[in-house]
Amino acid sequence: MTKVVFKGWRVGMRKIPFTMLLKQGAGLSLKQARTIKTKVLDNEEVVIEIDNIDDVRALVVKANNLGVIAELVE
Fold first, then answer.
1. pLDDT at 42
2. What is the rounded CA–CA span in Å between residue 34 and residue 73?
């Protein structure tokens, strides 16, 4: 499994699209996605694991484009 670390956010972060990205891109429930979004907004570091490396890379790029500070951890 590959890990994604969400370390924080930048001004202008798009919260709703980030929540939907977590739901669709990471296969999380809406409740889980909202919880992660809230933790990121509170500057808490959040780590999630995803099986497919290509999905992880796409998620990191999209999250960064939405204003979230995200990194791939292998």
1. 96
2. 22
